[in-house]
Amino acid sequence: MNAEVVKIPEDLFLDCEPGPYVSELATDRPGDNGAAQIVRDRLSAIGLDGLRARAKAAENDLMSLGVTFTVYSDATAIDRILPFDCIPRIITAAEWRKLETGVQQRVAAINAFLHDIYHDRKILRDGIVPAELVLGNANYRPEMENFPVRFGTYVHICGIDIIRDQFGDFRVLEDNARTPSGVSYVVENRHLMRRAFPDLLAGMSLMPVDDYGRRLREALTEIAPEGVDDPQVVLLSPGIYNSAYFEHVFLAREMGVPLVEGPDLVVEDDRVFMKTTAGLRAVHSIYRRLGDDFLDPTVFRPESLLGVPGLIRAWRKGNVALANAVGTGVADDKAVYAYMPRIIKYYLDQDPILANVETNICREAEGLAYTLDNLDQLVTKPVGESGGYGITIGPRATREELEASRAALIANPSNWISQPVIGLSVCPTLTDDGIRQRHLDLRPFAVTGRSTWVLPGGLSRVALKAGSLIVNSSQGGGSKDTWVLAEESRR
């Protein structure tokens, strides 16, 4: 199809706007250079029936390629595709510069915080962050105390969840510093668009997303033990029944490294080896996609069959590197999140480039009182959950749900935070009723070795249910291709 659209047979966006929320496909944003209008025109030229046919073919493509995830709470299915919406989200070059520098700043502060709490604990002594919030945290690992990591990098792969509020400002909603998932969909979504919608991409000047595997391998090579000329990198997976197993396969392929499970590795003389048909082969750097508790049964859960006995000892001896480091979960605790602006200021002497969403810490008397008094106007979240589980959205909750939330808060206030309901931005989305606005967020991925690189764009997760603010895949959300415009985007 010709990149220039002369005649538009129908306007598919008539029922989409205007609305009360910021639209990620608005045609009047500074720096857009007409890209949104081009996309709208080309989608209208394809037509609603054409879009639906191509979208169906794209979903079949995802299933045939095995681009799936698992919902553990669903006993009826193991594999499920992440619904893909064919209408892209557009981020301008200027917007991306702010997002990129904001993510890099946040990752630097997180790594400084983790180094400090496992060494000198200055931030705790100075009262910037309550000591009991850190030392009593379920994710705090005494095994990391006084243990240095290369370049001071604890979080090598970080996913920062970001929203745009009703005023158009980007805000951080959550930090994911343990084993963040979803980056495979960023790359696969772009591949899918190229196959199914080449006419939509024609002539568009976009920042590429195909470099993630190479960048990740470079970072893992950088953190390998010193003196190793050609480090062996592997990806350690819990196995096929893990919800993100497809991503493990994808990333191992993109990096060009072996995908292994615990029984494939063995520790001898405090060194890690991979079992091969030719014998044992030394391993120097491990991208691990299983939680701390399962890594090494001699240190953590003795019943774990997923990990490698002796792995932590080999790591502490300096014979292997782990990414992410053990104990990083302290930094993505939702209560610690509330202190991130102070953490950034403390270590970097900078104001946050990306602000937090206002957060009430229910472990503090004032935060608990305010939350209980305004429960029907707030979003309450458990600090240790992910995937959208346990959240109560006050204005949309039933009386029974609010009372259950109140009881949970009173029983264990330390497990909860609350936040105001944010008017998440929207993007036109293909639905059964036509093209409609749906809420979405963004998860950029940062890779850190010596320095931090951020994948242009990230995972745009969209709430496919009308009016829903929960975008998580486990709660019925989908994803979109995220287009970061280069400095000049042309027709």
TrEMBL record:
Residues 88-463 form the Circularly permuted ATP-grasp type domain. InterPro entries: ATP-dep_Glu-Cys_Ligase-2, CP_ATPgrasp_2, UCP005522. Coiled coil: none annotated. Gene3D superfamilies: 3.30.1490.270, 3.40.50.11290. Pfam families: CP_ATPgrasp_2. It comes from the Bacteria. This is Circularly permuted type 2 ATP-grasp protein. The lineage of its organism: Bacteria, Pseudomonadati, Pseudomonadota, Alphaproteobacteria, Acetobacterales.
